[in-house]
Write a structure and sequence with these properties.
CATH architecture: 3-Layer(aba) Sandwich
Radius of gyration: 16 Å
Mean pLDDT: 97
CATH class: Alpha Beta
CATH superfamily: Isochorismatase-like
Structural class: alpha/beta
Distance between the termini: 18 Å
Order of helices and strands: EHHEEHEHEEEHEH
Number of helices: 6
Low-confidence stretches: none
Shape: globular
Number of domains: 1
Strand order of the largest sheet: 3-2-1-4-5-8
Strand content: 15-25%
Helix content: 25-40%
Largest sheet: 6 strands, parallel
Length: 186
C-alpha cells in the first residue's frame, strides 16, 4: 500500500504536564487506536513519532522516562518509531527516507498539538509532495493565551482545519475514514 499513518507525539510527556488538565481530547488514544486498526487492515505503514528534548530536564527529556507512547496505544513490532527534536516529523528525522523506501505517497496524520506538531508535519508533508489527510478528531490541544487573548482549544482546532483544508490536506474524522474503508471493502 502507498499510505502511512503518522501518529505524532501521543506520548506520556503530555500527560505529565499541568496543561493536560485542559486538553480538549483526553481520550485521544481511543481515536488513534481506531485509525491504527484501519491502517493495519489496509496494510498501511504505521509510524509513531515521539518528541524529545535531550538534556532539557523537563518531561520531553528522554532521560526522565516520559518520552514513550501512551500506555493505551497498540504498537506492533513492524511499526516505525521515530524520535524528533523539531516541531515537524520530517526536519530532524529520516522519516522522508523511510516513506520513500516503502513507496508511500499518501499520509494520514494525527496526534498531539493540533496546531503545532501535527499541523506543521501536515504542511511539510504536503510541501514534500505527499497527499495528506488530517484527522481532526484524532488530534488534541489546549487553549493558548498570548498578549491577554485566549483562544480555546475548539477555536484553535477550527482555525487549523480552516487553514489546512484544500491547501495542504483533506480534513476528515475517524468515522468518515471508517465508512470509506467499509465502502472500499465491498
Amino acid at each position: 500500500m502507498t499510505r502511512a499513518l503518522i501518529v505524532i507525539d501521543v506520548q506520556e510527556s503530555f500527560r505529565a504536564r499541568p496543561e493536560w488538565a485542559g486538553i480538549n481530547n483526553p481520550r485521544i488514544t481511543d481515536q488513534v487506536n481506531r485509525l491504527l486498526r484501519l491502517a493495519r487492515d489496509a496494510g498501511d505503514t504505521v509510524v509513531w513519532v515521539l518528541h524529545s528534548e535531550p538534556g532539557s530536564g523537563d518531561v520531553f527529556d528522554p532521560a526522565l522516562g516520559q518520552v514513550r507512547l501512551m500506555a493505551e496505544l497498540e504498537p506492533d513490532d513492524g511499526d516505525l518509531l521515530i524520535h524528533k527534536t523539531s516541531h515537524n516529523a520530517f526536519t530532524t528525522t529520516n522519516l522522508q527516507q523511510e516513506l520513500t523506501l516503502r513507496g508511500v505517497s499518501e499520509l494520514t496524520v494525527c496526534g498531539i498539538r493540533t496546531e503545532q506538531c501535527v499541523e506543521t508535519t501536515t504542511r511539510v508533508g504536503s510541501d514534500l509532495g505527499y497527499t495528506v489527510t488530517f484527522v481532526t478528531d484524532a488530534t488534541a490541544t489546549d487553549a493558548i493565551t498570548r498578549d491577554g487573548v485566549t483562544l480555546s482549544a475548539e477555536e484553535i482546532t477550527r482555525r487549523t482545519e480552516f487553514v489546512l483544508a484544500d491547501r495542504f490536506a483533506t480534513i476528515a474524522t475517524v468515522d468518515e475514514l471508517e465508512r470509506r474503508a467499509a465502502e472500499e471493502a465491498r
